[in-house]
Amino acid sequence: MTGPTSANGTxxxxxxxxxxxxxxxxxxxxxxxxxxxxxxxxxxxxxxxRRAFLASAGFDADDLDRPVVGIADTGSDYTTCHRxxxxxxxxxKRGVLEAGGLPLVFPTMSLPEILLSPTxxxxxxxxxxxxxxxxxxxxxxxxxxLGGCDKTVPAQLMAAVSADxxxxxxxxxxxxxxxxxxxxxxxxxxCRGMWARHxxxxxxxxxxxxxxxxxxTTGGTCMVMGTASTMACVAEALGLSPAGTATAPAASGDRxxxxxxx
Length: 262
What we know:
Order of helices and strands: HHEHEHEHEEEHHHH
Oligomer: single chain
Largest sheet: 4 strands, parallel
Family: Belongs to the IlvD/Edd family.
Protein name: Dihydroxy-acid/6-phosphogluconate dehydratase N-terminal domain-containing protein
CATH architecture of the largest domain: 3-Layer(aba) Sandwich
Radius of gyration: 21 Å
Pfam families: ILVD_EDD_N
GO biological process, one term: branched-chain amino acid biosynthetic process
Helix content: 25-40%
Strand order of the largest sheet: 2-1-3-4
Shape: elongated
Structural class: alpha/beta
Keywords: 2Fe-2S, Amino-acid biosynthesis, Branched-chain amino acid biosynthesis, Iron, Iron-sulfur, Lyase, Metal-binding
Strand content: 5-15%
């Protein structure tokens, strides 16, 4: 629960420091880097110091007067589904700049379905809370949420609703299918099936090793209608992702254009 917002963007005793400042002393809407000023007891000093440090990143006064669009990046070496995320980040930044905004990327937790123990579901709400708090605590007029792997998208959508900042979800997109001995392979429908054949003695060690190399051949989420694809379609159906972008492959130009037009 947050308390009443003060003039410098902080909240009352039960609130969160750094909450979004929406209007100045004259009632004009505050936007961009002047939102949610850090509490130093002097709003003017907070603005001065914030702009001084942002200048060290090469931004000039014109840049810092633009609306800020945050970009939540869930890229990670652990999350192979998000392997194409760096290119997607750049495409979103390009789109924001073309629209006259200032893109600022920030990292969040990444939830690799295959590499988290005991299960990624254990961390979904933690990602939702982290993303919500970062969106509220950092100055941004809108946010683009980059996700994809199973629990990432629902966590980000939960965060977006709670943060109450204009948001759009752009998913990583599905990987391309593989092939083994003329059979089209889909992760992870064929993961279980092929492993069952191996356990039954139908596939030897060399054959299952070949299958393993052919199951997930590109970056992107599982291309079958599993959790990741379902959540991508749900986000689009809810109007929280750009229309027609849920199924564009991760390795395609369509996926990058989805980021630029978001």
